[in-house]
Amino acid sequence: MTQPNIIYILTDQHNPFVTGCYGDNIVRTPNLDRLASEGVVFDNAYTPSPICVPARMSLLTGCYPHNQECWTNSDILPSDRPTFAHALGAAGYKTRLVGRMHSIGPDQLRGFSERFVGDHSTNWVGGVAHSLGILTGTSGPARVSIDKSGPGQSSYEIHDHDVVKSCQDLSSVIAKEQAAPDAAPFFLHVGLMLPHQPYVGNQELFNYYYNRIPDPEISAPKPVDEHPYLRAWKEQTDTADISAEDTRRARAAYYALVETTDRMIGDILESYRDKGLLENTLIIYVSDHGDQIGERGLWWKQTFYEQSVRVPMILSWPGIIPANERRSQIVNLVDIAPTLVEAANHSQSGKAVQMPEIDGSGFLQLAIDGKAPWNNETFSEYCTDGMNKRMPEKVQQRMIRSGPWKLIYYHGYPSQLFNLEDDPLETNDLIKAPSHADLVHALQEKILKNWDREQISQTMEQRRLRKTILSEWSRQTKPADTYRWAINKDDNWLDS
Fold first, then answer.
1. What dotted CATH number matches 5-494?
2. Cα(140)–Cα(130) distance, integer angstroms
3. What is the DSSP string of 398-418?
4. Which one of 29, 167, 203, 243 is least enclosed by Cβ atoms within 10 Å?
């Protein structure tokens, strides 16, 4: 058997619970649902960090943030750190990236042979920022993203339309390449920005969902009952008093964005299907993290609740991965890189490669056989360095999911403990239950083992000082961005 072709689709901020194949009966996601029916759905997949750049650099390297030293959206991954693109290239693949990667620094290829469309944002710490026009500020964690939500259009959606068009154009190029007798297998990485906020979606889709979507399933707790860190987070982001109408409007727009994303994925896959390019092709769909869309009164990501830290994960490979099956085992995005390498090494004719110094484990055999051995435990972490002026507090937080248990460690604040088997909505914090004291101790020991909080703090402070110089350098010298997609601020608008 020859090495498989690989199509790897990565979206941004897709809450898995807003997908048909994950149980949502309102959202229309026929293309992802079809992919699920043709392959395996992972029901307990997690992000290594509930924020973009750390999650994406962990995806590339197979390492948790503390081992690749990217914790924030302004951290730069060292260019000598091998990525799965390097590994696949070493295995004989021609690797192409279309669209979003969200990597900071001068290395905007990270091992890919070719890159198209590019990112919307600057390559540099302190580089020239993009403007979303009337929607300025709505892409970050701030109340304006709720206030300015509803029917309309953002540049992020325009970016993804360009990604779709580029992928379709490439399908013709790849089809010609694959017709050659000595053709190398292809690897296509599709990077979409949706359904990341701005919470602004197509008018027709917004109208469809506005009166159909349910209210948040989990009510916002009273301030006195809320975890103190999360109460402070709401105060920092001015989201402690979002109205029911604002919530419904933003949620309807998010549902519209998810359906738009699904349509785009369908258009891409159909162009490759039409050209016979999916017969021996592994397709992987994941997102970098989720979105809380108003559950508990929380928005965006940045927490370890399931809507934020869980991700959709679907794998399809005709004839190798069984159709229409699910896996309940706990996996992580750090496991994607070694899984891609497993697929590249699946054939004896392929060049066997390995990625050194990684935290992840390949789960290809688990996808093939649900009874394959697996360590049912994973981690996620969220650390900040105080460079964001709106959120100057430095935080150090880590989560462990072990079997049914989830422990969340907040440095300087009380921890949280949930049993997801008995309490899937995470409404019953068991951290103070005397009967669970030994369990809390054991799980916290695992969280802090090989995760040296003081060392992380020192490293982040050193990097912050470096970034201060790099930021001022980029402001003064205005270095050119590479692989940057040009935003037209007039492409952003809200229907009245």
1. 3.40.720.10
2. 13
3. EEEEETTEEEEEETTS--EEE
4. 243
Tell me if 333 sits within 8 A of 358, measured CB to CB: no
Residue 320: CB atoms within 10 A of its CB come to 17
For residue 466, CA distances in Å to 106, 227, 470 come to: 15, 34, 6
Distance of CA 434 to the CA centre of its chain: 36
Q: Which two tokens stand for residue 169?
A: 């154009």
Q: What is the DSSP letter of 123?
A: S
Q: Write the pLDDT tens digit of every residue in 271-320.
A: 999 999 999 999 999 999 999 999 999 999 999 999 999 999 999 999 99
Extract the tokens encoding 348.
Answer: 């004896």
Q: Residue 348 pLDDT more than 70?
A: no
Q: How many helices (H) and strands (E) does the chain have?
A: 14, 16
Q: What is the pLDDT of residues 51-63, one digit of tens each?
A: 999 999 999 999 9
What is the pLDDT, as a whole number, of residue 377?
Answer: 98
| Exposure class string for 246-282: b at 16+ Cβ within 10 A, else e | bbbbbbbbbbbbbbbbbbbbbebbebbeeeebbebbb
Maximum separation of any 2 CA atoms in the chain, in Å:
68
Is the Cβ–Cβ distance between 68 and 61 less than 8 Å?
yes
| Structural element, H or E, at residue 95 | strand 94-99
pLDDT in tens, 193-223: 999 999 999 999 999 999 999 999 999 999 9
Q: Residue 299 CB: number of other CB atoms within 10 A?
A: 28
Residue 389 contacts by C-beta under 8 Å, 6 or more apart in sequence? none
Q: For the CA atoms of 187, 188, 189, 194, what is the dihedral angle to 10 degrees?
A: -160
Task: Look up tokens 């992000």; give the residue.
Answer: 47
